Batch of 4 targets.
Target 1
Amino acid sequence: MKDLTPEKIDELKAQVEKAYDSIKIELDMAKAVADADIVIESMTEDPKAKIDVYTKMKDLLPEKTVIVTNSSTMIPSQFRDYTGRPEKYMALHFANEIWNGNTAEVMGHDGTDPKVYDEVVQFAKEIGMIPLCLKKEQPGYILNTMLVPGSPVGPFHILDVVGLKTAYDICSMNPQAKDPNSTMGRICAMLKKYLDEGKTGVNAGEGFYKYK
C-alpha cells in the first residue's frame, strides 16, 4: 500500500464513483435479464428460494446467457435442472471482503460446457478476481473447506462477517435443527434470537460483536 500516492488514491476514488453511478436497480426480472451475458445469483442459502428464482428466470433469459451461483455451501448439480440451461450453469463464489482477498472460486458440474467454464474463468479475471479453479464439485469449495483449520479470526467473528442470516439458513437445512433439544436445534434458536433483534452481523453494525 506504500505506493499509493494521493494522485493514485484520487484515481481509484474516481473509478469507484463511476462504478457506483452505473449501478441500476431493476425490479422487473424480464427487463433485468433482457440482454444479460451473465447472471450471478447471490441470495440466501435457501434451496427452495433459489429454485423459485431459477424457475421464474429460465424462460426470460436470452440464449447466450450464462448463469452462475455465488452459493458458498451448495453445489451446482443441486440446481442445474431448474435453470433450463444446465450446460451454461456453474458456480462463481466470491470471498468475503474481496477488497482484502480478491479470489473467485470457479466450479462447474459434470454437465457444464467446458467452453462456458473457460469463459467464466476469463470473466473472473476481467473483473479483477484471481480465479481458483476446481475440477470437480466440492461442498464448501476451497475457502470454506479450509475455513476452520485456517481461519485468521475466531468463529463468532467469522459468523458476523458471513452474516447470521446465512448461518441460520445453513443451520436450518440440517434435519437435527427440528429438534429444539439437539445441538443443532439450540444453535439455530440462538441465531434466530440475534436475527429477531436485528443483530445480523457486520452489515448491521452488530452481531456477536459490535462494529463502529
Target 2
Amino acid sequence: MRIWLSRPHMSGNEEAKVAEAFASNFVAPIGPQLNEFEAVVSDYLGGGLHCVALSSGSAALHLALRLAGVGHGDEVWVSSMTFAGGVFPVNYLGGKPRFFDLDPQSWTIDTQILAEQLGIAATEGRLPKAIVPTDLYGQSVDLDQLEALAAKYDVRLVVDSAESVGASFSSTRKAGTGGDAAILSFNGNKIITTSGGGMLVTKHAEWAEEARFLATQARDSAPHYEHSTFGYNYRLSNICAAIGLGQMQVLDARAKRRRAIFAKYERALAAPGIDFMPEADGQFSTRWLTTLTIDPEQVGANREGVRLMLLEHEIESRPLWKPMHMQPLYSGTEYHGCGVDERLFKNGLCLPSGSDMSDAEQDEVIERILSFLAR
C-alpha cells in the first residue's frame, strides 16, 4: 500500500450528516447543513465572525480581494512561498503581486521587511491595495504585527489561513480570525476536508453579505434573473457542507495526531544538518505537514535524493512550495527579501503526515530515511 503525504481521513460521523441532507432533499448548493457548517466554524473560531462557505480557498481569496477593492493595476503584497491558488486571484482581478520573503524564525512572512517596504511605499505614494500573508504548513502568521501595520497604513489585510485550520496564534485567538478577512481551505489533503471547499471568514457583516451575493451569480432580488453586476458560481454544496460538519467534530483530534507525528519524526531524524520547521513562540501549529530541511554539505545527501528514494518505495513526499517569484509566470515581479524562501525550497521536504497514518507506516518512512542517509 502506498503511503500518502496527506489523504482525507473520515471519522464515521460524516455519513450520518450527509444522510440527513439526502433525507431532507437539500442536495442543491444551499441548505440547512451549509448554514450549520458556517455557524459551527464561526463558533470554533471564537464567535462574532461571519463565515461564508465556498467551493475552494482560491474562490474565497478571489471574493475577499474583490471586496477589498482590488482592481486593474492595483498592487497586492503576498508571501512568495505559497500555493499558486494563493496568488492567482490577484491576476483574476487584473492586479499585480509583489512578493515577500519569510522570517527564518517562523517560516511566515517577514514583518520587518514588510514594515520597511510599507514605509517606503507610503513616502512614494504607492501603497498596496491589500496585503495577503500566508499561514504556512499549519502555523499562523503574526496577526498582531500584521494588523498593526495594516491599520497604520490603512491597507486591507486578507490572511491566507488555508493551511492552518485548527491552529492558534495565541492562547486566546485561533488562526483564521485575522485581518479584514481570512481564507480557509477544506481541500482533500487538508487537516479536515469537505472533499473540496473553502471559506471566507470576516468581521465585516457587509462583506459576508456581499460575498454570498457574488458567490451565487450576483442575482438581484427579482422574480426573474436580474443582474446589476457579474458574479460567480462559488457556493459550497450542501452535501459537502454536511461532510464538513462531521469533520469539525474531530478537528482538534486531527491536530493532536499530526503534532504527535511531527514530534516522532523530530526525535527520530534529529541530526546535524537536518532542521524542522520551527514553532513560533506562543503559537500552536497543527503541523498539517511535517516539513524539514536537509543540508547536503552536512548530511551528505540532498532533499531530492531522499524524495526519489521514498518514491521508489511507494512513499509520497514533496518539496516545499516553490516561491512565486521563482515561477516562470512571475518572472521579473518585484520581490523583497534575502532568499530565505529560496533556500527552504532548495533543501526542504514535506514528509507523510496524514492523521490516518499508522505507527508502522511512520516507522517505515523513518527507517527508509535513516538507512538511506547512513549509506
Target 3
Amino acid sequence: MAKVSVLNMEGAQVGEIDLNDAVFGVDVKENLMHKAVVAQLAGARQGTQSAKTRSEVSGGGRKPWRQKGTGHARQGSIRAPQWTGGGMVFAPKPRDYEIKVNKKERALAIKSALTTKVNENKLIVIDNLHFDEIKTKKFVAFMNNIKAQKALIVLAGKDENVEMSAHNVPGVKTALTNTINTYDILKYDTLVLTQDAVNAITEVYA
C-alpha cells in the first residue's frame, strides 16, 4: 500500500494514510482512460447542429437555362451546392454523440486515473476541509498553504462554504466522491482529497 502524508489546512503534516492498492495502486489502463474521457466529452455535445441539403432548401425546381447552346456550364438547379443559397453537400443533422462505456470500464478508468495521480505525487490528502463562512480569500490562502494551483477538490459530502469559496478561484473545481470522473481527475494538475473522501472512494471502488 502506498503511504501519503495527511496535511491540515495550514499545510502542515499531521499524519499518514495508507491508500488501498485496489483503488490507488492498480495497473494503469491508458486505453480505458482515453475511452472514458472521449465518452464524457462526446456526451457533453448538444448534437443540435442542423443545416439544409439541396432537397430541403426552397426554390430551384426549374432548370435555370437549357442544357446546350448558352455558353454556360450545364446546371440543373439554382439550389445545387455550388450556387449561393444552395444546399450543403454533407449537411450536419441533429444526432446523439453518446459513446457507451460499461460500469466496469468506467470504474477501472477512474482507478487508473487515481493511480496516475499517486504515481506522479500529485495527490494531496487533507485531514479536514471546512470554512465557517463563504470566503474566497480564505480558500486561496488554503491553496497556497498546500502549494496547489490547478486542483480538483473532492469532498465526501456537500459543504456549501467550501464549494462557494472555491467557486471563483481560477483553475479550481470542487466535486463529491459520487461525481468524480476520469476527465476531471486527469484535467487538473493536483487532486486534493479529504480523509473522508479517500475512505468513501475506497469503499465504492475497492
Target 4
Amino acid sequence: MTKLLKIALAGALVLGVASTTASADVVKGQKIFIKKFKKGCGFNGAKFAAKHTQAEWEAIGAAGMKDKLMKECPSLDAGKIKDKWMQHIYDFSYEYANDSGNVPSC
C-alpha cells in the first residue's frame, strides 16, 4: 500500500512540475516586452497592459496578440515578432490589465 501511495505522489509531483514549465510565464512576457517592444512602442509594458480589462484581453487572446501589438505599435517590424512570444505577452497583459489591481515593475 505504501509503495502505491509513493508512486501516486511521485506521479502527481512530476505532472505538476511538467505542467508548470510548459505554461506561459508572466515574468517572461514582461521581459520580452521590455527587451523587444518598449522602444518600438514608445511606452512601457504597464501602459500596454492597462489598455484593456482582463475580459478584453481574453477576447483578444494569445492568437490576436501579434495583431494587437502591430496596431498599438505600428513602428514595430512584424517580421521580427516571434509567434512563440505571444502567449507570454498575453499572460503578462492579462495579469496586469487595468482591472487586475496589479502593477508591473517596467
